[in-house]
Design goal:
heterotrimer; A mainly alpha (323); B mainly alpha (355); C alpha/beta (513); A: 323 residues; two-stranded antiparallel sheet; B: mainly alpha; two-stranded antiparallel ribbon; 5% strand; transmembrane transporter activity (chain B); ABC_transp_permease (chain B); ABC transporter permease (chain B); cell membrane (chain B); transmembrane (chain B)
Chain lengths: 323, 355, 513
């Protein structure tokens, strides 16, 4: 295998891995930008993966599967929104509750929604079709960058969604409202904006995107269902939001870097590097790198005094009557 | 008709008791719906769970044995939560403890066997403390987000533990797991499967209660958790206390691992990452961070786990049911907490007043 | 003031407005009438219900009962959007601006008829045009957090004008302005009146009422007690009496000025912002003797709070020295500073002064819990704490059901008394008080001021930061004026003139006065 080939393959794997992360990260960016911290991503993504897989397994319709994943993701984030906005619960434990409930329920249902022949288990089942890569003629033949044009529909959709998400946030009146609500909810309220409504909307949208991200895993990346198959990606998403400095456009960089590291780790394992470095070390390396990157970035940010600051009202509840 | 929340004049103690109890009930009702959807009779299922958790002496013993690490993890998490430090890495700190004691048991052969257990426990506790202390330092010194650091550190140490029991420390026979600890270094059992660790846990509950509610340090932690800025104005060091609290939190989670390893598994092997960290969060939150109440809550949580294992055996239902119920408890609890400080007003249409 | 004709239908008529908050009757059957081209001053103490009444007019709160007529029609105002549609806009005491967004974005934020992609170029143009017309200079593409307070207020006014508001409500608009800026504001208001706009402005300053308004309405404890043309007022004292319901204590009991040894000595203090820029504190030097109160005057945000934080150890300094009770306390920890005998009444009661979720008793013992008086061998003696707290509650007449009540359920005045009690009891010769009477009613304000003077008479060195010149002239022995992190001058309180202090507060150098 020559170097060029290796890099092209790595980029392809990175895009496949990054797609799921990008959807969920975009969702969480919007949620956090309105001031709601949703730590339930891990549970929501897993439920999305399950919902997508069961639907595809039973109907064979991939688009219906995506819709179900989004619906389920939206429903779980609605619970989070209800806890944090209406009941003014602390957002950290609320998110943890969503993650615990979501992972528990997904794992439970994964062993109940399968066919009787497999002991009601979904694990080990195959879906009739999956989102496969579609190569664009000529463009996909370009060395290295060709990988960008030989991806699944889910990834192509991102090429449009990410620029749109950026444009929506910084150029439209709705984006203005989102930013104002997360930065200074009191001001937003005084301008006649319903802070609760905006927070509900974007928390639910964020959950829908996370559900979609989960479905990317079970319908495209590794078309199957496995207990706990998100394996901490929901947490990586939270870190990626910080790395993207709450800017939808920069979600690309974070997801590519993290997807790249994870894919590199797989290809290194496959290439037999585990003779030198134990496979488990390669296995946890993405988390170690995330940890180091997070610490470094936070420290740099402090030195530069908040140039990557989070939305000011992130994690706080808001009620107009509070004085 | 409209609903509105109105602040009470003081905290409602009645609600403070009622809300957790109601949450437990609500989670069982919601759990019943999950069971119904998945074609199982909820009454039968719950009966099977209760029987599985408390139905016989042996089963009760299993539940109690399970509740010991849960209680300790709940206490560990609770200390950090007091400071609003979201330690969700108790699991990693627990694994750290197991690695520590295993290291001593397997490699510190120069020690007399009577010293293996105490030294192993101390080293394990130290490992847990270090693993908890690192995110503590990162947060105190540079305010690095602790939810992420503690969680990332879980994945790291669990991966490392895997490397140890699959590879570096693997016992010569078998394909995974370290060498069993010498029998004379096991933590003795006292009643069937129930081991001496239960005393350690209960004594710790008493000590922690005293420290948290009676000492100057406990007072300082309380101040920081409820208003960091005011505590700082009163000369309380936030940094020092975050690090201290996280060292203690990690140490207690490490102790949970140490006790379970010394008394139950006697080795480092697969399954060491049993999710105690997350269950600990539920215990801490449900008990309102009170160590004594944590005892009851951890027994309930343990019963959900042993009960759902029984569910799998008797009714062929996935044992993830326990996790579903555990996860469900927090949701009504978090939703209900607001009623401790607010009351719900039902407003009929606005009265019309003529000018 | 221009002549006012009141034969037209009033633009705003509020009838029998009543509003309850838990435990408080904020407005009780209040009536209010505003005519076209009129400036109505709404006068009242803190907590008299002025802001609540206005918040109902703009739809932030809803009245329990009563009716609002706007331009003759019964209005249903359920949100700020409703009031804006009726041409009513409010400038809140705390500015309603999003700090990291541009001036233009703030001005159009939340407007319903904005297209999906707002045409920013057009918006900029319109803002520039408006700002020229009213002499409100701002740059539409500047980011709010880079603007001065005065500029931010201009943005607030533009925000209302842009939306076509013709009824403006201003909540204590001059509180954040220097006297000069306040006069500019007056000019702008006058200009708007000539175009048929009207304004209500909330204040508790008598001189502003006399200077700015056509009509004055006085609220006291939620009730409207008087409405009259400003011209008919003969003596300011009459207004004050109406507002308070009794004579304000214009002089406090105080012993003779008898300064002792230097207790606080600050030399060449320098604090730089993280990431560089203009110094927050620039070469500050002063000293305070025992038995002396040094007042710090200045518009909020000119470094006063940072100065007190530097002294109390909460903020690290980049240069200079701080000596407290004779010891070098530069860049020491807050605990070391406390042990050196410093007590601190911080600027923000709720977020810095008390722990709201802890009991009154616990809050009272938050300084002394670490001393032998309340604990031994690191164990807090609960019995001693109870006795100690009960004693302080009685001594400082803190109104609380009992000492186990969480502090957050107390009124602002009683929360402040709790802080005062704790800090004065533990005071070891130096007392630092930052905006100690902010937001308190007259009774509580008096108690605070009298207590500060009592400490001075006992030989304490007191540093008092205040935004009210009146308070400083009444309480302090010397007054230092701060502007942009510098001390402009230090003067004797007894021969200081308001006008002169006002010039210094605006940054006019001594030699130019």
């Amino acid at each position: 295998m020559n170097m060029l080939d290796f890099i092209t393959k790595l980029l392809a794997a990175t895009l496949a891995m990054g797609t799921s992360l990008a959807y969920a990260t975009l969702g969480e960016v919007y949620t956090q930008k309105t001031g709601i911290l949703n730590l339930g991503m891990e549970g929501i993504m897993l439920m999305g993966a399950l919902a997508g897989f069961t639907t595809a397994f039973n109907t064979g319709n991939l688009y219906l599967a995506l819709m179900m994943a989004m619906l389920v993701g939206g429903f779980f984030s609605l619970i989070h929104a209800f806890l944090c906005i209406t009941m003014r619960a602390n957002q950290v434990p609320a998110g943890l509750a969503i993650t615990m409930f979501g992972t528990g329920l997904a794992n439970f249902l994964g062993e109940r929604l399968g066919p009787a022949s497999n002991g009601y288990n979904l694990t080990g089942m195959n879906i009739p079709s999956k989102f496969s890569n579609i190569a664009i003629p000529f463009l996909s033949d370009i060395p290295i960058l060709g990988a960008l044009f030989d991806v699944s529909l889910l990834t192509y959709a991102l090429y449009l969604l990410i620029p749109f998400a950026w444009f929506f946030m910084y150029k439209t009146k709705h984006g203005m409202v989102v930013r104002a609500v997360g930065e200074n909810p009191r001001t937003a309220a005084s301008m006649g904006i319903s802070v609760s409504k905006i927070r509900y909307i974007y928390t639910v949208i964020g959950g829908m995107l996370a559900g979609l991200g989960g479905a990317c895993l079970s319908l495209s990346f590794t078309p199957s269902w496995n207990e706990g198959m998100t394996g901490g990606k929901g947490w990586i998403v939270i870190a990626l939001v910080i790395f993207s400095t709450w800017n939808p456009a920069r979600v690309v960089i974070g997801t590519l870097v993290f997807g790249g590291i994870t894919s590199l780790q797989f290809s290194l394992q496959a290439a037999g590097l585990k003779m030198v470095i134990p496979s488990q070390f390669l296995g946890f390396s993405p988390y170690l790198i995330t940890l180091v990157a997070l610490a470094t970035m936070t420290i740099i940010n402090q030195k530069k005094k908040g140039s990557f600051a989070s939305p000011s009202a992130l994690g706080t509840s808001f009620a107009i009557d509070d004085k | 008709m409209k609903f509105r929340l109105e602040k009470r004049d003081s905290r409602s103690t009645r609600m403070a008791v009622l809300v957790p109890v109601a949450s437990l009930l609500v989670s069982f009702i919601l759990g019943a719906i999950v069971l119904l959807i998945s074609d199982a009779n909820p009454f039968q299922a719950y009966a099977a769970m209760i029987k599985g958790a408390f139905g016989s002496q042996t089963k009760l013993q299993y539940t109690l044995v399970k509740s010991i690490p849960l209680l300790l993890c709940g206490l560990a998490v609770g200390i950090a939560f007091r400071l609003k430090f979201w330690n969700i890495g108790a699991e990693g700190q627990y694994v750290g403890g197991v690695i520590g004691i295993t290291w001593v048991m397997q490699f510190w052969t120069f020690l007399p066997s009577a010293l293996l257990l105490p030294v192993g426990m101390l080293v394990g506790i130290l490992f847990g403390a270090i693993w908890g202390g690192i995110p503590g330092v990162l947060k105190a010194q540079w305010s690095v987000d602790e939810t992420l650091t503690t969680l990332m550190m879980n994945y790291i140490i669990i991966g490392f533990a895997e490397y140890l029991y699959f590879d570096a420390w693997k016992a010569p026979r078998g394909n995974m797991g370290t060498v069993l600890y010498p029998k004379e270094a096991w933590l003795p059992r006292i009643w069937g499967r129930v081991h001496g660790g239960i005393f350690i846990a209960l004594i710790l509950v008493g000590i922690l209660w005293f420290v948290l509610y009676k000492t100057r340090w406990g007072f300082e932690l309380n101040m920081i958790g409820k208003n960091k800025r005011a505590a700082e104005c009163q000369g309380v060091s936030i940094k020092k206390n975050i690090i201290l609290a996280m060292l203690l939190s990690g140490a207690i989670a490490g102790l949970a691992g140490v006790i379970d390893a010394a008394a139950v598994t006697h080795q480092l092997t697969k399954g060491v990452d049993a999710g105690y960290g997350f269950t600990g969060i539920i215990i801490a939150w449900m008990s309102g961070l009170n160590p004594f109440i944590s005892i009851i809550v951890s027994v309930i949580m343990a019963a959900l786990e042993t009960g759902s294992d029984a569910l799998q055996m008797t009714m062929k239902l996935p044992n993830a049911m326990g996790a579903v119920l555990q996860g469900l408890i927090l949701i009504p609890l978090l939703a209900g907490n607001i009623f401790i400080e607010y009351r719900l007003l039902v407003i009929k249409n606005r009265k019309e007043v003529t000018a | 003031m221009s002549e006012l004709t009141t034969d037209e239908t009033p633009v705003v008529r509020m009838v029998n407005i009543t509003k309850h908050f838990p435990g408080v009757l904020a407005n009780d059957q209040v009536n209010l009438t505003l005519h076209r081209g009129e400036i109505l001053a709404l006068l009242g103490e803190n907590g008299a219900g002025k802001s609540t009444l206005m918040n109902m007019l703009v739809g932030l709160y809803q009245a329990d009962s009563g009716e609002i007529y706007v331009k003759g029609k019964l209005a249903e105002i359920n949100s700020p959007q409703d009031s804006m549609a009726l041409g009513i806009g409010m400038i809140h005491q705390e500015f309603m601006l999003v700090g990291n967004m541009s001036v233009a974005e703030n001005i159009v934020l939340g407007m319903k008829d904005l297209p999906f992609v707002p045409p920013m170029a057009e918006i900029h143009e319109k803002i520039t045009e408006l700002s020229k017309r009213y002499g409100l200079q701002v740059y539409p593409d500047k980011i709010i957090q880079d603007l001065s307070v005065g500029e931010q207020q201009r943005v607030e006014i533009l925000k209302l004008l842009y939306r076509g508001a013709d009824i403006l409500i201003l909540d204590e608009p001059t509180a954040v302005l220097t006297p000069g800026e306040a006069r500019d504001l007056n000019e702008i208001l006058k200009k708007m009146l000539t175009e048929g706009k009207s304004a209500i402005f909330i204040t508790h300053k008598m001189d502003e009422v006399m200077e700015f308004s056509h009509t004055v309405q006085v609220l006291r404890r939620g009730k409207s007690v008087s409405v009259c043309p400003t011209k008919s007022i003969k003596r300011v004292q009459d207004l004050a009496n109406m507002m308070v319901g009794r004579d304000i204590l214009f002089s406090l009991e105080r012993g003779p000025y008898n300064p002792g040894d230097i207790k606080v000595e600050v030399k060449d203090l320098l604090v730089l912002p993280v990431g560089g820029g203009k110094p927050i504190l620039d070469n500050i030097s002063f000293s305070i003797r025992g038995g002396e109160i040094l007042g710090i005057a200045g518009v909020a945000g000119n470094g006063q709070q940072q100065l007190t934080e530097a002294i109390t150890g909460l903020l690290k300094v980049n240069g200079g020295t701080i000596f407290l009770n004779g010891k070098d306390m530069t860049n020491k920890t807050p605990l070391q500073v406390i042990k050196a005998g410093v007590s601190h009444i911080p600027a923000d009661r709720g977020s810095m002064g008390v722990v709201g979720d802890m009991s009154v008793g616990d809050n009272l013992s938050m300084k002394k819990y670490r001393t032998a008086e309340l604990s031994s061998h690191n164990i807090i003696k609960r019995g001693l704490v109870r006795k100690f707290a009960d004693h302080l509650i009685e001594l400082f007449t803190i109104k609380t059901p009992n000492q186990d009540t969480s502090v957050k359920f107390l009124s602002g005045g009683n929360i402040q008394k709790t802080i005062l009690a704790r800090e004065i009891d533990a005071c070891g010769g130096i007392l630092i008080a930052v905006y100690p009477s902010r937001g308190l009613d007259v009774g509580a304000t008096e108690a605070v001021r009298q207590n500060l003077i009592k400490q001075r008479d006992k030989g304490c060195a007191v540093l008092l930061v205040s935004e009210e010149l009146e308070e400083l002239l009444m309480v302090a022995d010397k007054i230092a004026v701060m502007f942009e992190g510098r001390i402009m001058d230090i003067v004797d309180a007894k021969d200081a003139k308001t006008e002169e202090l006002g010039m210094l507060m605006a940054g006019v150098e001594r030699r130019d006065i």
